[in-house]
Amino acid sequence: MVDFPSKVTTETSSPQPQQGASRLRGLASSATSRMDESFLRSVPAALMAAETVLGLLHWALIAGAPYWHFPAYGWVMFVAVALWILTVLLFLVLLFSVPQRLSAVPWTMTVGEEAHFWALLRSGGTGTGTDTNLTRFWCRLQVMMYNGVAALLYLTAFLTNAATVRMFSASFHGHIGAAAFFGAALTLLYGAGAYVSYLDWRANGGDAATSTVPT
C-alpha cells in the first residue's frame, strides 16, 4: 500500500516582478497622459527645446576649459547656467500643466504667470471675462519680456565669449570658439522667442487689454 506524505508543500512564483513592471508602466502612462501635446506641437515649445539643448552645450564647453582664470567668465557662466535652469523649469511647468494641478498657488502673482495663461487657454478661459483678458494680456507681455531680457543677456555673454577666445591656450580654442558659436545661436533663439511672443501679444494681448478699459 502506498504511503502518502502527511504534508504537501506547493511553491508558486513570486508576482513581485510582474507587479513592479506594471507599476512602471502605470507611472509611464500617467506621466504621458499629463503631458500637454498641444504645447509640444507649438513654436514656443520647439524654441525652448532648442534653447535647452544648445544652452547645455554652451556652458558645458566653457566648464571644460580653465575659465576661472578670467573674471569675465564668471558673468558668462552665470548667464548660461541661470537661463538654462529657468528655461528647463518653465518648459516642464508648461509641459505638465502644473498650474492646473496646483490651483492653490496664486499663479497670476508669480513668475509662472505665462504657464497660468496656457492653462486658461486649454480650459477655455474659466475665469471672468475681465480677469481672463487681463491675465492673458500680462502673461503675453511677461513672456515677451523674459525672452527679450534673455536675448540681451546672452548677447553680452556671447560678445564676452567671442572676444576672449585668444586668451586661452591653443588647446582650448576649439572649446571656447564652439561655445561662442552656441552663444550666438542662443541669442538668436531667444530673440526669435521674443518676436513670436510680441506677435502673439500684438494679435491678441493688445485687444484683450483695450477691451478691459472702461469707456
UniProtKB/TrEMBL annotation:
It is a multi-pass membrane protein. Residues 1-21 are annotated as: Disordered. One of its GO terms (cellular component) is membrane. PROSITE patterns: MARVEL. Residues 39-202 form the MARVEL domain. InterPro entries: Marvel, MARVEL-CKLF_proteins. One of its GO terms (molecular function) is structural constituent of myelin sheath. The chain crosses the membrane at residues 43-68, 74-96, 143-164, 176-196. Residues 7-21 have a biased composition (Polar residues). Keywords: Membrane, Transmembrane, Transmembrane helix. It is found in: Membrane. GO terms for biological process: myelination. PANTHER family: MARVEL-CONTAINING POTENTIAL LIPID RAFT-ASSOCIATED PROTEIN (PTHR22776), PLASMOLIPIN (PTHR22776:SF9). Belongs to the MAL family. This is MARVEL domain-containing protein. It comes from Gambusia affinis (Western mosquitofish).
